[in-house]
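Explain my protein.
***
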Amino acid sequence: MIRQSRAALAACLLMGFMLAGCAAPPNGGRDELGVVEPWDPLENVNRVTFDANMWLNDNAIGPASHAYRDVVPEYVQLRLRQGIANLGEPLIFGNDLAQARVKSAFTTFWRFVFNSTIGLAGMYDVATDMGLTRQTGDFGQTLYAWGVRQSPYFVLPLFGPSTVRDGLGMGVELWADPMGRVFDKANGGDANYGIGAVGGLDKARNLDTLDELRKGTIDFYALLRSVWLQNRQAALDEAIGVQSSNMPAIP
């Protein structure tokens, strides 16, 4: 994605952050059992966006993803998936440092070194076989570590469940991504479009899991919101060194 698009997205997310400024939920967003309580003051808008996303998933993204999986051999899909994941390691490294998670940053640094060299540009995840497991680390998580603890639930167009804080963090990362800037300078951003398209089609394989969750659910929006918030909280807790239990993960 070109730099102007990143800046525009960051500006839109910042506007959403400003518009959503309202009283924080009670008990820090958790009930007495520690379960994350939904804080959704933008629910009416979120539901409209959610319905639009589901329509796109059912009528465009889903069919395109199935075609991608039918045409591209599974071995090639895995190589592309791991190569794209490797390109995200520098962002994880920077966020781990910003969160003072030195051990995680150290692990991520060596993951990127070994996978980028021995692993042939990350197409083979040799670092995991060496005991260097992939870490979490994004700017929304960093903002949480810096004290932005409560944030309204916010459904992003195309990207799906998020919060205002995490959406803003995504906008910052799209603008600041060091690997994206490298590709911008190398070929005007054409490679970024290709990487984004392949990554999107590959991640859309998870739509099958969502379809299973949707079956027999009266309010799929509320269910997905709850599951996403529980899983997201587990990642946020890592930023401040808190052990937390989480719901079954959405792949």
User: Anything to note?
Assistant: The longest strand covers residues 153-156. The chain has a mean pLDDT of 84. Strands lie at 153-156, 160-163. Residues 38 and 222 are 9 Å apart (CA to CA).
